[in-house]
Amino acid sequence: MESEAMPQATPQVPETGELPEAARRGPISHTIFRVARLHRMLAGQLLREVGLHPAQELVMMQLWDRGRMRQTDLARHVGADAATMTRSIQRLEKAGFVRRVRSTSDKRSVLVEATAASQALRRQVEDLWARLEDYVAGDLTDAERGETLAVLERLETALAAHSGDAQASSRPGAPDA
To answer: Where is the region Disordered (predicted)?
Structure first.
């Protein structure tokens, strides 16, 4: 796989390594914010190559793995609110990647399914996620990758517990709620 150069972002921490005064009591939080911003920016650049917006690939991943599902369940699995999910589904439907149908058993429910056209997109999304992973952790050893993942999962669990958000339970490998 050929590597493409990504634009360099300017870090928010001065070259001296000092945090802004107001962030000194939260250096981990400040770093998480900066890392998340850069990660989303790079993901967005890669996703534009395949005609997607950030988080739409997460919707597609769920549909490819789980098949047809209720839009409300899809929103829960992705961690999106109903309005955001509706907009994402509308855009994906317009692009021909998903189809919405009314449930025959519950007329209030809308079912969403990936279209055959989205299957070509799947390989592209897998490839760009591999590129993103390489940008993020390409120079880490296997041990460092495992340690990083474990720490991030602990941080996610702690944040979810304090936010009242059960989304940490829907991450890959965690049991469904």
So the answer is: 1-25
